[in-house]
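Reply to dn_fold:

You asked what the input looked like. This is it:
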Amino acid sequence: MGRRRSGQKSKRCEEQRKKDSDNDNIDDFERQWLNKRRKIAAQIDETLKKQLPKMQKHYHNQLQRNTAGDGMLTKRSMRRAECDENDVGGGSTRPDDSNSTRFISEKQPIHVSGDKNSDNNANESKATKEKERIQKLRLKKQLQKQRRKEKKAAVATALQTSLQTRQEARQQLLQQKKEFLDKKHKIRQFDAASATTTDAKSSSTASTTNIASSSNQNNTKTDKHSGFAPHPHPQNRHCELLYQDLHIGRGPCIRHRKNVTVSYTLRAKSHSMGKVLDAGKSFSFRFGKGEVIKGWDVGLDGMRVGGVRRLIVKSGMGYGKRDVGAGRGGDLFFEVELLRVAP
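and this is what came back:
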């Protein structure tokens, strides 16, 4: 029995120890919670002390606005102000809710009798400002449209002026070309007229020389071949060149320092029976520049395109004493047809 009682006492002691340990744990939790609450309350008090001057200024301004009309506050406004002051200055330990500050800052001003006129005036001023702003915007848009129209008109005028200047320049160029062509045509006509006069003079001189040779056989040299006459060129003083026109052309006249194309045949003793020494169907050279023998530069003067002329060239205007096939110092019998004269 003694053993049983001692075992029961030990059990009871253990149970009490557990309860005491549980109570100790509960006291620790409560202490922690209380400490947290105290810290939060201290923080709230500090923030409220910092915000007190701002809130007092805000309520003071609000009271001045409410009393601006008649100088009297309504009972409702006074009660609200007293409640707000008590809440701010109480130093309560409740947490800092943002909703309370939001409610305080978002409170609308209390309208006292006599503020309606001021509100109406404010609304009217706002309406007039909006009207002025709208008018300014309309004026800006109108000015922008006018400037765009002016720019388009300026661009159109510039294009028109440029087109007109180009057309005038083209007309001037066309006029200059026409004048140049007219001058060129006149020069060609003058050359043709001068060539006809030289042909007429050459034919008249040939007839006079023939008459003179028939009358004065002792003083002048007679030609062995009938129909040939000495060329009237001033370089043919000693009658070393004789010519005969088989066919007079109707094309442009030959000119000095111009490219010329001819077809020719060279014989030894006569134009019909002699041996053919040389021939060419399209031989080109520059007339009067010394590119051929002197007999050609002198004897082809006065010819026209399409004409055929026979020449008897002696050694003085030919190849000199060199033997080409007709012997040294022999006469050369050419038959030349003028094909083309370069412009």
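Strands lie at 229-230, 241-247, 259-267, 276-286, 308-313, 332-341.
Hope that clears it up.
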